[in-house]
Write a structure and sequence with these properties.
Blueprint: H1 3-15, H2 17-27, E1 48-52, E2 55-58, E3 63-66, H3 69-72, H4 81-93, H5 102-114, E4 120-124, H6 127-142, E5 146-150, H7 189-192, E6 195-198, H8 203-210, E7 215-220, E8 223-224, E9 229-230, H9 233-246, E10 249-253, H10 265-270, E11 276-280, E12 290-294, H11 296-303, H12 319-334, H13 338-360, E13 365-369, E14 372-376, H14 393-405, E15 408-409, E16 415-417, H15 424-444
Helix pairs in contact: 1-14, 4-12, 5-12, 6-11, 13-15, 14-15
Length: 446
């Protein structure tokens, strides 16, 4: 560990004494001290007091440009006025009914209007729930047991999804057919038997054809959340052709990309329509949500199976979430020009960072699309999940500290977002902070 890193760690401790106190308490109350492992940081997490627009303040009064945006939730920034107004009005009418309410109609109408493949929508509470529900639906509609997913794709933390999410060079197996590696302890062997892991190459199409008799569906993230790697449009188009020919359903997991890159998400950008798509994050307007959309025919077929098809959830479609969600979707429908603006700002950020790193000969780069980005400790831009291992992990850890030292907040794994509330000046300050952070890491290595 470099002396520079030690100095910054101490500086961060000095800046955030209250966060340090809460961290010590939390470790005695919550496993690992964290409600979610994605929130870990050195020397300890940032305990947030409030957020507004593009910024977030910790309990010690430090202000950061927020590049976490609650892991992509806040496409309009923290606390947009139309959403807050709708939430406050609904809270006075009640927070949970356990019965139908009119917001269900408004929300699902807007969701279906925006998503090209959608005729029906089912609402749950998280992105993880949405993929679990989508895969049950595909199994019921096809009367086949297995789901295929791609190596490096993240579809939530349930037992079926946690296979080969991150690539371990020692256990990943051949590129033609990856090994299935669990992402957690506690996953039963039976879950393995229901899944197939596909590679991001032409061999995936052969495997789909070989296993078509048992494959209910194929799931893919059009942009891999782990690494912010955009799947080639031609590959997605070929995947659609192969699955249709093989009689296998296709699932787009747009929990991250949905309503962040375009109103119609990656379906709009690629022109490819899946059979089923899942959503979360943005569509809840800041409150927990997941959603599955598909055709009417697909649900009708699933309901005709011997066991029928059913789902439930006390908080699914609760009035608070669907109120904030409807307000968010309404704003996005009426102000869809924000997507072109965020695309341009994202290109400014990525090209500014990558061109500068290349000019300096620094082994860092930035991937992503639109308002989504990630910094890697590699000189060459990674394309596939198998390109991600081998980075300088110590440099990435130190880089994280420099970000906070420069008043920019990113999650520890560097998966990052900005919002429509981030101005051009914010983007320029972010770029300055990222360059200063890289300089700090490189100077500590001299």
């Amino acid at each position: 560990m470099s002396s520079s890193k030690e100095v910054i760690l101490q500086e961060l401790r000095d800046r955030t004494p209250k966060s340090g106190e809460y961290w010590e308490q939390s470790k005695d109350l919550v496993p690992g001290g964290l409600m979610s492992g994605a929130r870990k940081m050195e020397p300890y997490p940032v305990y947030v007091e409030r957020g507004k627009g593009a910024y977030i303040w910790d309990i010690d009064g430090n202000r950061y440009i927020d590049c976490a945006m609650s892991f992509g939730v806040h496409v309009l920034g923290h606390g947009p006025a139309p959403v807050l107004k709708a939430l406050q009005a609904q809270a006075e009418r009640g927070m949970s009914y356990g019965m139908p309410h009119t917001r269900e109609v408004e929300f699902t109408q807007r969701l279906i209007e925006c998503v090209p493949c959608a005729e029906l929508a089912m609402v749950c509470n998280t992105g993880t729930e949405s993929t679990l529900l989508a895969w049950r639906l595909m199994r019921a509609a096809s009367n086949k047991p297995k789901i295929a997913k791609f190596e490096g794709c993240y579809h939530g933390w349930h037992d079926y999804a946690q296979w080969s999410v991150t690539v371990d060079p020692e256990n990943m197996g051949p590129a033609e057919r990856p090994n299935m590696t669990p992402g957690s302890g506690g996953i039963p062997d039976g879950a393995r038997d229901t899944m197939l892991v596909l590679p991001f190459n032409e061999n995936a199409f052969r495997l789909i054809e070989e296993h078509a008799h048992e494959l209910a569906g194929v799931a893919i993230e059009p942009v891999l959340g782990g690494g912010m790697l955009t799947v080639d449009k031609g590959f997605i188009q070929k995947l659609r052709e192969v699955t249709q020919k093989a009689g296998v359903l296709l699932h787009f997991d747009e929990v991250i990309t949905g309503f962040r890159l375009a109103l119609g998400g990656c379906q709009e950008l690629t022109g490819v329509l899946p059979d089923v798509a899942t959503y979360g994050k943005v569509i809840g307007g800041g409150l927990p949500i997941g959603a599955v959309v598909c055709s009417k025919e697909m649900v009708a077929v699933a309901q005709k199976t011997d066991d029928g098809f059913s789902v439930a959830g006390t908080f699914s479609g609760n009035p608070l979430t669907l109120t904030t969600g409807a307000a968010t979707l309404k704003y996005l429908q009426e102000n869809s020009d924000i997507y072109d603006d965020m695309m341009a700002k994202g290109e400014f950020l990525r090209s500014g960072f990558n061109d500068w790193c290349a000019s300096k000969g620094y082994p860092f780069c930035m991937t992503g699309i639109g308002s989504m980005f990630q910094i890697h400790a590699k000189a060459d831009l990674p394309v596939l999940a198998r390109d991600l291992p081998g980075q300088d992990e110590e440099a990435l850890a130190e880089l994280q500290l420099h970000f906070r030292f420069n008043n920019v907040l990113l999650p520890w794994m560097h998966l990052a977002f900005f919002s429509a509330a981030h101005t051009q000046e914010d983007l320029e300050e972010m770029l300055r902070a990222f360059r200063a952070s890289v300089e700090g890491v490189m100077n500590s290595r001299k």
